């Protein structure tokens, strides 16, 4: 019995040591999480990390340009064609882009797919708002995107006002945009 | 990945379908497990059904409460659409609480009930992993290993399938621990299955790309290590007390 007790104790200690060691080894470093230097991360109340990217049809967008030109709030939606919840809410972003026009910039940031894939998806689903290509995951890493869809609401001064993870209904999206435009 | 199943004009989301299949298989497994263990199958099936229903409703209600400003002028949104808008942690807590109180009401013993519930729980967790795999959520880190799968045009660890394998291994252990030859005291099959599954998740979650992190540590790994040590501790305690569990 005593030997059995010792074996159990040794097993538990061994598992704790190996498990703890494995967790430490698996720890993601700062470099893993934020591979881009000079980022401020999309924390509410902080400046939104700036970036320049191209849409699937070749137009260039720089986030800070929206704030420089008189101040336009930006809704940044991270998505992918394979992500069902993203697909659910994309018609809402299209409707919002049409409804609010120049009062707010609605930008989709794709996750790691090619321009051709995005273009085909936009064409098939009648999406006309800018869909940015991020094949190298630069913007996704810059914003620390862990889940799709994620939507970042940025006010006219370039300050992140809200980060929402998960699918939004059209009413929720419009409510958030109204708040953003009113700020 | 297969996020949608295209049947003619219908595009069925595979994730919810796999969840439904997982729930059905889980309930079936609880029924069969209770019979295998010589327990009252009807009561244990009802216990599992209670947990599932309470968990489903609870996950929705917790989500709605946490996002009440988005629902107070759209009450219909609480019940439709059902495809998104759940809080998994809230659902798990409420489901477990409902099962606990139902078990007490029906005077079910804790350890035998956990033994009967274990395969159902594991099958549901396997279904969650497979739904993630088909839907594309919870994807793995980049790899050049030959068993990597192509996601977003690059090779990644199929971490959701690794998770499912951990579940299958735990099911195998549960099956062995409930065999007439190895069957011990009540609670042992559940604890061994929990230990194996937690050990598996501790190992494979290292390759998850979009894990929840605290100071760079994978939260799931820390939870898995805690569950693993707790299960081993309870198994050891039984030995120290002379084989009570």
Write a structural description.
The complex is a heterodimer of chains A (183) and B (245). With 183 residues, chain A is α/β, with parallel strands linked by helices. Chain A has seven helices and seven strands; from the N terminus they run ααββαβαβαβαββα. Chain A folds into two domains: 1-33; 34-182, Glutaredoxin. Chain A has helices at 2-26, 30-33, 63-68, 84-100, 115-125, 138-142, 170-182, and strands spanning 52-54, 60-62, 74-79, 105-110, 131-132, 150-154, 160-165. In chain A, a hairpin with a 5-residue loop joins strand 6 and strand 7 (160-165). The longest helix of chain A has 25 residues, at 2-26. Chain A is elongated and about 75 Å long. The model of chain A is unreliable at 31-41 (pLDDT under 50). Chain B is mostly helical and 245 residues long. Chain B is 62% helix and 7% strand. Chain B contains seven helices and six strands. Chain B has helices at residues 14-36, 41-66, 88-105, 110-135, 159-177, 188-204, 219-240, and strands at 4-7, 10-13, 149-151, 154-156, 213-214, 217-218. In chain B, the strands form three sheets. A two-stranded antiparallel ribbon of chain B has the order 1-2. Chain B is globular. Chain A binds chain B through residues 1, 4-5, 8-9, 11-12, 15-16, 19-20, 22-30, 32-33, 80, 82-85, 88, 111-114, 135, 145-148, 166-169, 171-172, 175, and chain B through 1, 3-4, 13, 15, 67, 69-70, 73-74, 77, 81, 83-85, 135-137, 152-154, 199, 202-203, 205-206, 210-213, 215-218, 221-222, 225, 228-229, 232-233, 235-236, 239-240, 242.
Biggest β-sheet: strands ordered side by side in the sheet of chain A: 5-4-3-6-7
Please report the two chains with the greatest interface, counting residues with C-beta closer than 8 angstroms to the partner's C-beta: A-B, 44 and 46 residues
Q: Any idea of the CATH class of the largest domain in chain A?
A: Alpha Beta
Main-sheet strand order of chain B equals 1-2
Estimate the strand proportion of chain B.
Answer: 5-15%
Helical percentage of chain A = 40-55%
CATH architecture name of the largest domain in chain A: 3-Layer(aba) Sandwich
> What share of the residues of chain B lie within helices?
55-70%
Secondary-structure content class of chain B: mainly alpha
């Amino acid at each position: 019995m005593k030997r059995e007790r010792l074996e159990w104790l040794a097993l538990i200690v061994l598992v704790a040591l190996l498990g703890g060691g494995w967790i430490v080894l698996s720890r993601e470093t700062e470099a893993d999480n934020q591979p881009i230097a000079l980022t401020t991360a999309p924390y509410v109340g902080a400046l939104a990390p700036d970036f320049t990217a191209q849409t699937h049809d070749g137009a260039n967008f720089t986030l800070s340009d929206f704030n420089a030109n008189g101040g336009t709030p930006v809704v940044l939606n991270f998505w992918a064609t394979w992500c069902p919840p993203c697909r659910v809410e994309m018609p809402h972003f299209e409707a919002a882009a049409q409804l609010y026009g120049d009062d707010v910039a609605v930008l989709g940031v794709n996750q790691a797919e090619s321009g051709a894939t995005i273009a085909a998806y936009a064409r098939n689903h009648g999406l006309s708002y800018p869909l940015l290509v991020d094949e190298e995951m630069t913007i996704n890493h810059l914003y620390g995107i862990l889940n799709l869809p994620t939507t970042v609401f940025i006010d006219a001064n370039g300050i992140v006002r809200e980060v929402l993870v998960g699918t939004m209904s059209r009413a929720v999206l419009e409510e958030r945009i109204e708040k953003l435009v009113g700020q | 990945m297969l996020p949608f199943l295209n049947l003619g004009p219908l595009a069925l989301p595979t994730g919810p379908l796999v969840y439904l299949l997982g729930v059905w298989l889980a309930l079936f497994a609880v029924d069969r497990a209770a019979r295998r263990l010589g327990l009252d199958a009807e009561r244990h099936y009802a216990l599992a059904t209670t947990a599932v229903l309470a968990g489903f409703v609870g996950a929705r209600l917790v989500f709605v409460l946490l996002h009440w400003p988005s629902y107070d002028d759209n009450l219909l949104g609480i019940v439709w659409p059902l495809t998104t808008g759940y809080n998994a942690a809230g659902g798990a807590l409420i489901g477990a609480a409902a099962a606990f109180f139902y078990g007490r009401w029906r005077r079910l013993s804790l350890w035998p009930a956990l033994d009967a519930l274990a395969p159902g729980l594991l099958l549901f967790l396997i279904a969650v992993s497979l739904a993630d795999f088909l839907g594309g959520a919870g994807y793995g880190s980049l790899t050049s290993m030959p068993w990597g799968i192509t996601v977003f045009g690059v090779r990644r660890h199929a971490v959701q399938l690794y998770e499912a394998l951990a579940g299958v291994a735990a099911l195998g252990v549960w099956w062995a621990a409930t065999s007439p030859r190895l069957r011990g005291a009540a609670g042992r099959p559940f604890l061994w299955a929990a230990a194996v599954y937690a050990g598996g998740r501790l190992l494979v979650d290292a390759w998850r790309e979009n894990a929840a992190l605290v100071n760079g540590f994978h939260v799931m790994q820390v939870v898995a290590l805690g569950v693993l040590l707790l299960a081993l501790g309870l198994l050891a305690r039984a030995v120290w007390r002379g084989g009570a569990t």
